[in-house]
Amino acid sequence: MSESAPRPVDRHLFAGFLRQHRGAAVAVAGWSLLEAVPALASGLLVAAALDRGFLAGRPAEGFLWIGLLGAAMVFRALMTRTLTPWLGRLVEPLRDELVTAVAAGAVHRAAAGARDTAGAGVARLTVQVETVRALVSALLRSARQLGVSLLMAFLGLAALSAPVAAVTLPPVLLTLLLCVPRLRVLARRQRRQLRAEEALTAAAGETFDGIRDVVACGARDRVADDLSARITDHRDAVRAVARTASANTLLVSLGSHLPLLVLLLAAPRLLDRGALSVGELLGATSYLISGVAPALRSLVAVLGSWGVQLATVLRQLSRSTAPARRVPERTPGPDVPARRVPERTPGPDIPARRVSERTPGPDASTRSPRSPDLSLVNVGYAYGPGAAPVIDGLSLDLPAGSHLTVVGPSGAGKSTLTTLLAGLAAPGNGRLTVGGVPVTEVDRAWLHREVTLIPQEAYVFTGTVRDNLRYLHPRARDTDLLASAEAVGARALVDRLGGLDAPVGLDGPPLSSGERQLVALARAHVSPASVVLLDEACCHLDPAAEEGAERAFAARGTTLVVVAHRISSALRAPRVLVLDGERTAIGTHAQLLGESPLYADLVGHWVAAGAP
Prior knowledge:
- The protein has about 600 residues and is an alpha/beta fold.
- Helices cover about 60% and strands about 10% of the residues.
- The two termini are about 60 Å apart.
């Protein structure tokens, strides 16, 4: 692993974390020992109260020993109060390190070409990291206290009576030995549950994100069956965890009562032989009833639930931060929505070819095109094995500086076309080139710089207006930012917000959907991009603002592809592409009115709806 690569989330991260926070760890250990003083002294104090006090005819001394036991309890409460802030000094920094490790791991894996579904990544960064934080906090509070108390109880029992410790310790050790393999089984089943949860989250997220394409491809039943199978798998995994946990609880319950039963059976012989006094018997019973038995039950229960769950989540997170070995789909930029692109099943007239989602890695041969000319030759694309192609046999030339409007019914493949043109996915068949270079061989840095895709739901970063506008052009001057904002109609918004230094996003005032689109349009306009793809990126603007934004991009000589929201976008473009399978057509507005019944119908619907 390179020096810049993130550390895997595993025991090495914890070891490094404890070294870095050695002071807090040592303080927690020290205060924990002091906190367990009552567990060590309780039985000894009870035995002394009986043997030296009440049974010896000295009740005052007996009450003194009992008073010392009460003082020990107060001391324990004070130690717990002192210990709590130190626990926080371990838990909160650990959460921050986990977030950093998981986020850095996701970025490094994406850069190296690993395929991580968005749903699984969100689950790791939110649910799983927060689960680790909560579990570590709970274990430090409970398991730490229970473990130290159990150890101190045994030390006190041994100091009180070696024969009693000899007959009660073996059942406890036997219980622990029997529980260890059960905990391993529970851990395996917890891992299966977590994998099922991730798979369900990822599948549901992909389905809902691509629901339009699912309906368009007629894949509703297949997708529903797939989700149902994942739900069933998750349910079975949860039930398996519950069965194993219940069996462990029964085993520990029996094991925690067995030492007391052994003591009661051995007590008469020990008393007769003088190996045990009455006070020592009551003190030993106190250790077992109030110390060993509840601590053992609780400790194994906590380790069997929180401990196993923590180990499972950490193992899953470790896999997500491991070095990537695969080279998949390009990671979208700030204005590019992520989409999973499965493999298309070749038809009888289509040679078998794997749908390429791969982005060339650092060792792959890539090229920078000499021009942003786009060319599609017999391009086809489908979203699933056996699914009908969304785009089929499309041929299209887009020379640099050209202006094209794309129209068609919902599900016709308009957004899919922009995804292909942006290089986020490669055709299932046919050929898509940029400046004569196949899109799969184009240098990723060149694509990030020269091609910008703005989706319908624009994104605004938390930061200043300046940060947002120059995100795609970090060296842009303020005059350039304001000029682009003026060009696309966003200058009034910038002024209303308070200028380029005004905060936006989480730190600023809420923005409407149209205002967010204006920010995204200005960001794209000031960028050096030579190809701009507007996928209904002006749908929340009024017609005049939409016209102004489109004319601003056309005036700068940018290749402009507009997925139309209104008929006016088609009227402004020199060429219009009508997407709808076999009825796909391209031409001017006037030509298509006479040659494409679908386009004529769309125009009629727009006019009937009162669209300008």
